[in-house]
Write a structure and sequence with these properties.
3-stranded antiparallel β-sheet, 5 helices, 23% strand, binds zinc ion
Length: 176
């Protein structure tokens, strides 16, 4: 279980990080997975949106922890498109994700590897810790997954259509 993963009601919530642990990891150069200090090679998971933002909000990982995370994390290894349980929050998130991606190519993840000298914290205008800067020398970039459009359950698809219909009534038609 990744150290950074949040727990609510006695169950781990993958994709929901403890905010304090996230900041601790970033500022103290700890691995978000095993909590140990990062070494000479630091792995980060980067999406296209992160590149536009200029930083990743997730802390770094040991290369071996990153490999393990890729093997077991449903968000990273592509198993997330199943969504077996349907907590309202997850569905809402999925719908938001889908609506924002309508007509966009599927999102992909890359693993980037940097060194301690390229470890640079990105700060917001108010001094808050945003994450790790991507405007640094990168040793290696490795594609992790090409994210397919998630397969939706009938119920989720109906919900999504509702949202898209709502949008199309105000912003013009959205082609499927
Ligand atoms: Zn680690």
């Amino acid at each position: 279980m990744p150290w950074i993963t949040g727990w609510f009601n006695g169950r781990p919530q993958f994709g929901v990080n403890f905010p304090v642990r996230r900041i601790q990891c970033i500022t103290h150069r700890l691995c978000q997975f095993c909590r140990q200090p990062l070494g000479r090679r630091i792995g980060i998971v980067v999406r296209p949106a992160d590149i536009s933002a200029g930083y990743v909000d997730e802390p770094g990982m040991h290369p071996e922890c990153l490999d393990y995370a890729l093997a077991v994390c449903p968000m990273l290894n592509g198993a997330m498109d199943r969504y077996r349980s349907q907590p309202p929050a997850a569905v809402a998130h999925l719908v938001a994700l889908q609506a924002s991606r309508a007509g966009q190519p599927a999102e992909a993840y890359d693993a980037w590897f940097i060194t301690p000298s390229g470890y640079e914290i990105a700060y917001g205008a108010d001094g808050s810790v945003l994450g790790l800067s991507l405007d640094v020398p990168v040793l290696m970039k490795r594609p992790v997954r090409t994210a397919a459009q998630p397969r939706l359950t009938d119920e989720q698809a109906a919900l999504l259509r509702q949202v898209l219909d709502l949008e199309s009534s105000t912003e013009g038609p959205i082609t499927p």
